[in-house]
Each structure stands twice: as C-alpha cells, then as structure tokens.
Amino acid sequence: MSASGGGPSEAHHGAHGRPPTRREKWEGFKESPYFPALVLVFILAAAAGLFAGSYTYAMANPTPHRIPAAVVSPPETARGKEFVAAMDRTLDASLDLHVYRTPAAAREAMDEQEVFAIVRSGSRGVALDVASASGAAVAQLLAESAVKVGDTLGLPVAVTDVKPLQKGDPRGLALFYISLAAVIIGFVGAIQLSVHARSLNPLERIWFTVLSSLLGAFAIAAVVDWWLGAVDLPFAESWLILAFTMFTSGMVFTMFNTLMGRWAMLPTWGLMVIVGNPSSGGAVSWPLLPSLLGHIGRWLPPGASVNAQHTAVYYQGHQKVLPFLVLAAWSLVSCTVFWVWRHRHPGGRDRMPGHAAAAA
C-alpha cells in the first residue's frame, strides 16, 4: 500500500525537483518581460547607429552628382565656351547643361526648378545666375567655382543670386526643420493615440489623426512664422502641407501597427527618419546627395513635404502636383490597409460582451 501510494508522490516531486532543460529555460525566458526588453535594447542600439549613419552618409560630405544648369544659347565667344568647359571640369563633369534661346526662357526653367543656374556669356565676360532658394549649398558651390574658374581664365564673372533665401533663414534649413517636426510629431501622435486612446474605433482613430494633424500643423506654422519670424510663410498653404504631412506620417504608423503590432515603430522609423528625412533634399539639396537617396527621396513623404513647402515659400505660382500625389498615395495606401485589416489593429472597443449578452 505504502509503495503504491508513494510512487505518484515521488514522481511528482521528482518532476519538480529536476533542473529544467534548455528548451524549458528558453520558453520561460520568452514568456518573461526580459525577452522583449532585451530585444528592444539591441533594436535601439541598431537604430541609433543607423540614424547617425544615414544622416552622416547623406550630409557630412555633400558632393555634386548632377547639377542641371541653363545656358542662354550656345556661348557665342570662345571664352564663354572655355568657361563652361572649365566649370564642368571643376565640378567633376557634374553639370547637366540645357540650352535656352532667351534669358526669359532660362529664367522660367529656374522658376520651375528645372535648373539651378543660368550661364550667359558676352563680350565683357560671363554672368552666372544662381538660386539659393533651390539649395544654399549648391548655389555656394556654383558661385565659388565660377569665381575660381574666372580667375584662372582671366575672365570677369558676375554672380547674382536671383532667388535669395529669407533673412531669418540664411542657410535654408527652416523648411526642413518644420517638415521634420511634422513627420515626427505625426507618427508620435499616432503612437500616443494607440497607447492612451486605445479604445477608439477605426473611423474615430482616423478622424482624431486628422484633428491632431490640423492643430499640430497650425502650431508649427504659427511658431515659426508669427512668433519667431524666421520664415514668412504663405500661411494657409504651408499649414495645409504640414497637416497633410502629419496625417500621412500618422497613418503610416497606424498601418504598420495594424500589420506588425508592437513592432510597428521599426518600419515607421526606418522609412520616415532613417531613409526619408536625409533623402528629402531639405538639409542638403538633391544634386549633392548620394545618387540613390537623391532619386528615392522625392517619392517618400518627407521629401514630398519638403518639396511642396519649398515651392510654396520661394516659388509661388509654380507649385507642382507631384508632392501632393505622393502624400496622397501614402495616405490612401495606409488608410486602406488599416481599414481592410482593422480587426488586427490592437485598438478598438471590445464588443464581445455585448454579443454575449444578446446571445444569452
């Protein structure tokens, strides 16, 4: 009796007394709070390195790759042709020359942001028109190179900045910063909605993202223009561009949150901050960016926002539809994915108790 009674007890104590296997230890670790915490530690370390690396790669050593420039008719003098050829050599064959028949046609191309400089030659020397508004670093590079080439050739060179930056923004970075603020606050706001307003239903979540975008964009524009006076914005247009940017950024996070749950910050940060902001052309104009970034930046929300804002402020009357189409496409895709797979989103009000009560 005692033997048969003691058997199960001994087996029971033996099961609890033996050391856990490696598999059991691993399963226990994965269920503990230490596993996601440790994963986050490594993710944050990688994100820090990628963040620093992406901005350094794009901005630390800007190098011209292709600078569109207008030439008013082919240079009629031998010295004019020599100047254009020497400029191209100085800039490592990065000038992309476009010939225009009249100065007015060349200036229209500059207003449309198709070219960054205009070269006009005559019997007395060469005139170079640059546009700091299209990129302060590009304009400075062209002006300095033209003066050096002129000195080397003994040719008078007159440099004129026909699109100067506003007095409160001498480096042309204010528009990049306000666009950056709209991008980051846009998805941070969506994160906060998912944490502190978790029970919002899908349509409510979209509408609150719209509301926070409108108010946040108004605050950004008001502080920069009315309070600090750094940039004279076309207020209504700039406000709506910023609001569109914030909404797009917020819905991109909401889309990834629907697809990936708690790890949604990873693709959002990678798309918007690590790739999108350095390639936007706001801090370094796209002719000076690494070629890959220069091509993809305008197709991402940060680049579209910077381009639209830049044209609104400095090239009024020449606004383009492409930046708005890019923002609209990202917003539409994000809202569609969120709506179609809304049952996977971690938020929303639980209606199961209501169904259960009805069934009872």
Q: What brief labels describe this structure?
A:
single chain; 360 residues; alpha/beta; five-stranded mixed beta sheet; 14 helices
Description:
- The protein has 14 helices and 5 strands.
- The chain is α/β, with parallel strands linked by helices and 360 residues long.
- A 5-stranded mixed β-sheet has the order 2-1-3-4-5, sandwiched between helices.
- Helix 6 (136-153) links the parallel strand 4 and strand 5.
- Helix 3 (34-59) runs parallel beside helix 10, helix 7 runs antiparallel to helix 10 (265-276) and helix 12 runs antiparallel to helix 13 (322-340).
- The relative contact order is 0.10.
Q: What's the β-strand tally?
A: 5
Strand content: 5-15%
Question: How helix-rich are the residues, as a percent range?
Answer: 55-70%
What's the main sheet like? 5 strands, mixed
Stretches with pLDDT under 50, minimum 5 residues = 351-360
DSSP summary: helix tally: 14
Let me know the average pLDDT.
Answer: 85
Order of helical and strand elements? HHHEHEHEEHEHHHHHHHH
Task: Round the Cα radius of gyration to an integer and report it.
Answer: 29 Å
Helix/strand-derived category reads: alpha/beta
Q: N- to C-terminal separation?
A: 51 Å
Strand order of the largest sheet: 2-1-3-4-5
User: Per the principal axes of the C-alpha atoms, what is the gross shape?
Assistant: elongated
Question: In summary, what is this structure?
Answer:
63% of the residues lie in helices and 8% in strands. It is an alpha/beta fold and 360 residues long.
